[in-house]
Write a structure and sequence with these properties.
Pfam families: UCH (PF00443). Helix content is about 30%, strand content about 30%. It is an alpha+beta fold and about 350 residues long.
């Protein structure tokens, strides 16, 4: 007996709806192999950086040694992480590739250091320089360092770039905005910290500061929670509040160089690297915002669950909880605003 069309169509669309819902909201976990929680966490944040995956997808490697090539293995694992499958994504090849490039298995690593190493491997190992530079530009923070001699007032400037912004935190309550202001404030260097002045031809007391020249599409921030005190490294679990949205134009004019002309200074948080434990032993997890649903998810190795902004905020700082160690912000789509008033 044939099934009436009026019954078949609703059931068909119900199954299709379940399928599309699963594809939109699920993400794949990663099994912890050889203390790989640090790399697992970074892979989840890189997978949430779809701009990176889009550039890697355009790359057609030719003649690279696949098993030793970090960007090649990264391209493969990101593609597998985007597949709609219920079990964890296989990433042992990527882990062994990192091991061959001296990011060793069965070793505790610092997430920010591994992140910067991966970006460095991409620059050195991709055979398409145009795409490699495009990836570099995705994260590149251009800055100008100014050193002023306090004896003769001679000013020396040097342009450079960063791929993550290292923010010093106080052993008290902090806010991301306060940490930013502190980073761009000028500091006086005296005593053993004096700098060499070419005009005075000797080391003199100086005033040093950093100014922003340009902001990237993806802004990575490191909250410097690990402090070396009398030869011992300890972790600071103090509070650092951070917003879901951040506007750089709210910073003081002194934070920007005279060449800064960008008007798209608004950013939205999309990933947080969380550290549990102390300076000697710990565990990494991640909160990431899913691209299609715009919902927060929590990734703890192979375990992935839906989360919320309220859960993300709980990582701002507490001795008994995981604490935010790296923040990743994405620049908002360009708006038709005028340039921010940086003249005040």
């Amino acid at each position: 007996m044939s099934v009436p069309m009026s019954v078949w169509i609703p059931e068909h669309f119900l199954r299709l709806s379940r399928f599309l819902s699963r594809r939109e909201f699920e993400m794949r976990g990663l099994i912890n192999h050889y203390l790989s929680c640090c790399v697992n966490t970074l892979l989840q944040t890189l997978n949430a950086t779809w701009e990176l995956a889009d550039i890697l997808e355009k790359w057609k490697p030719a003649g690279v040694r696949a098993e030793d090539n970090v960007p090649f293995q990264l391209k493969r694992v990101l593609k597998m992480m985007q597949e709609d499958l219920p079990h964890p994504a296989p990433h042992q090849d990527f882990l062994h590739c990192l091991d061959r490039n001296r990011i060793r298995l069965s070793t505790q690593h610092d997430a920010d250091e591994v992140f910067l190493s991966i970006l460095d491997f991409i620059q050195r190992q991709m055979d398409d320089r145009t795409l490699a530079i495009e990836i570099q530009s995705l994260y590149k923070i251009s800055v100008e360092t100014q050193v002023q001699c306090l004896e003769c007032n001679n000013v020396q400037t040097r342009n450079s770039h960063l791929f993550s912004l290292p923010l010093h935190i106080k052993e008290d309550r902090n806010s991301l905005k306060d940490c930013m202001i502190s980073f761009f404030e000028q500091q006086e260097l005296r005593g053993i910290d004096c700098c060499f002045c070419a005009q005075c031809e000797t080391k003199t007391p100086t005033k040093q500061g950093v100014k922003l020249c340009s902001l990237p599409q993806i802004l990575c921030i490191q909250l410097k929670r690990f402090r070396n005190i009398r030869g011992f490294t300890r972790k600071l679990n103090c509070s650092v509040t951070f917003p879901e949205k951040f506007n750089f134009s709210e910073l003081r004019r002194e934070a920007f160089s005279s060449d800064f002309t960008q008007n798209d200074c608004r950013y939205t948080l999309y990933a947080v690297v969380v550290h549990y434990g102390d300076a000697m032993f710990g565990h990494y997890t991640a909160y990431v915002r899913q691209r299609l649903s715009n919902r927060w998810f929590y990734a703890d190795d192979s375990h992935v669950s839906q989360s919320s902004w309220e859960d993300v905020q709980k990582t701002e700082g507490s001795p008994n909880r995981g604490t935010a160690y790296m923040l990743m912000y994405r620049k908002d789509p360009k708006e038709v605003d005028q340039l921010p008033d940086l003249s005040g």
